[in-house]
Amino acid sequence: MSVIFDEEFRRRLEVLKRLVAKALAGRGGAGRSPLVERGGRVEFGGHRAYAPGDEARSVDWNAYARLEALVVKEFEAPKEAHLLLVLDRSGSMRCFGKDAAALRLAAALGWLGLAAGARVACTSSHGGSPWITAPERFPELLGALERTPADGTADLPAAVERAPPLGTGRRTAVVLSDLYEAGPGARAVAALRRRAESVVCAHVVAPEELRAPAAEALRLRDAESAELLEVRLDAAARARFAAAAEAFLADRAALAARHGARLSIVRPGDDLIAAVERVVVGAP
Amino acid sequence: VSFDVPWALLGLLLLGLLILLDRWRRRPREILWPSLQLWRGVAAGAARARRFDPLLFYECAAVALLSLAAAGPGVRTGTEARTILVVRDVGPHMDARRADGRTAGEATDAEIARMGPVEVRPAEGALVEAVVSLPPADLRVLATDREGVLGEGYVVVGRAADGDNLGIDAVDVSGDTVWFAVATDGAQREVTVNGMRVETGRGVEVPFTGRLEIADEDNYDGDDVVVLRRLSVGVRDGTGSRLVRAALAAGTRTHEGDDLVLVHEAGAATVRGADAIASGIFEGLFLDGCVWDGVATREGEGVLTWRGKAVAAWLDERTLWIGLPVDREWDEHGTLAVLIERAKRSRAEARLAPGDAIVGDAIASPAPGLVRTKGVDRPWDGRLPPARSRVRGRTALRAALALAAAGVLLLYLRAIVRRS
Hints:
The structure holds 2 protein chains of 2 kinds. Chain A is α/β, with parallel strands linked by helices. Chain A is 38% helix and 20% strand. Chain A is built from 8 helices and 10 strands. In chain A, the strands form 3 sheets. Chain A has a 6-stranded mixed beta sheet, with helices on both faces. A two-stranded antiparallel ribbon of chain A has the order 1-2. A two-stranded antiparallel ribbon of chain A has the order 8-9. In chain A, helix 6 (182-195) links the parallel strand 6 and strand 7. In chain A, helix 1 packs parallel to helix 8. Chain A starts with 6 loop residues before the first helix and ends with a helix. Chain B has a 4-stranded mixed beta sheet. A 4-stranded mixed beta sheet of chain B has the order 7-8-12-11. Chain B has a 3-stranded antiparallel beta sheet with strand order 1-3-21. In chain B, helix 1 (13-25) runs antiparallel to helix 3 (54-71) and helix 3 (54-71) runs antiparallel to helix 11 (394-419). The interface between A and B is medium-sized, with 36 and 25 residues. Strand 8 (217-222) of chain A pairs parallel with strand 2 of chain B, so a sheet runs across the interface.
């Protein structure tokens, strides 16, 4: 079992299986199912005899009029649903536990997607996986996620280009990134929007990186470029940094909205189940 | 400004240490950061400028003030003209012509004049004279000559008869002190003067007694004037009373920074061991607890030592100079002089450390002596050290500095509390 996906983690995800199935099937309604909120449709699975406990609204009253027997309609998740996980594996993700949080979130989404019968693939600028269709092949997806360490610069457009072609079914893409590079991030989201009905940006940010450290003088080394920058922090400098961090978050939210994607903040310290729920259904 | 404990200023070196520590404490710490883009605007601002740190300022100020307080600064004020009291032997023998045609008195006067611009005057208005300074053979003559020698103000408490071969002189200098000089040249009858038993008959080996007392009400602190209440010296050495008329110090007032200069010439023919006599002369001369172990002589290695902490402290404020030429024939000079210098002179130039002594003859010996300062012998031309300025306000300054340091420490603590 992987370090990011152990048995305890899988057990906790069980409670989300139904939620993801609904999301991929679109049964939650447009407002509650962002993964299929655009262009999603429900596959009719057939009739079966009414049994006590079935909801009244699931009874096919037209069939009752014709057949004079109570039957209920059944729906099933579309077999062609696709879930593409786009991971930012740049050096900036190494800081403050963001990489591990993104990997665990991606693994959780992948496992839930496979459990719901969707095809799942992952991609990053360093590599990816083909479409995986069966839950038993989840370790293959997991291996692809863990294979490459976070390093270098983020190239989300290249990751999108590297992704296997999306099918014709319901297509959902989830971008897991800290979105520091606004231009490439916007291009990647736009490219995904052209291919998928639903795009979710899981904006992985750590509270620590939005808060100036307590030290009076810092020598900051950029995790991607190794560039050095010396900063002395007084109250004014801290205020400027706080304002810059706030503007950064607002800008990335606007970026996502501009391209028809939804942005969900993911923090490394958050409860993972809640994070998955936020990404899947857009819960606050 | 002078300092009582100059080495305490080494504490100022802590300032550099504090600044280095501050620089080390505020050195930039390297942190790996996801992206520098949020920091660009911060680094471009005035945040790069080093801020004034009140904590460092308080630390440095406290250390500096405490160091200065420990050093004990004092303000040196203007100098005063020195007063030198010269006691000159005016005995008849001083008028005897020597081989060079001059009298001993003339030679002595010339030496006094050579000392520089000094004012010669009697102590407290009373002329103090060395009474006799003659070889034993002449003592009888002197004894009979006594009345012609003593001036007004002398109280004669005893007088030797012509046949006694004994001279006793006494003079009341201050009004409450009596000193004695007893001269004898051989076995004589016992004489008791004011309780002092004079054991004659053993030539020069008559013990010396002397005492300088400082009354309880005397104060040695800071700028207070020290009053030497009483000085009584008795001399018996078989050379008559040719030795010290040190009683001239009685009734005179000395001040902080005053120097006492004794120039004592002892005839070699009458001295049985310079050290023994010298130590006898000055034994018990000063304060209680002060014992002179010896006195500087040319033959005796020039070592002057004493015991007693209080005395050391007392001597730290004053300097005792002793000249004791013992390598000359006494009758060659025939001069006895005791000098008390009430001068202010620069300690930096001629401050003697415990154990130091000056060996020389300021008056009678034309050859310069040696001055030993800080353990180093240097030629001494017989001139007295320059006038010294008074140092005032040492205690007040020290208290003010300590108070200021305490205030700064309070501000420092308040700043720490505020910062935390």
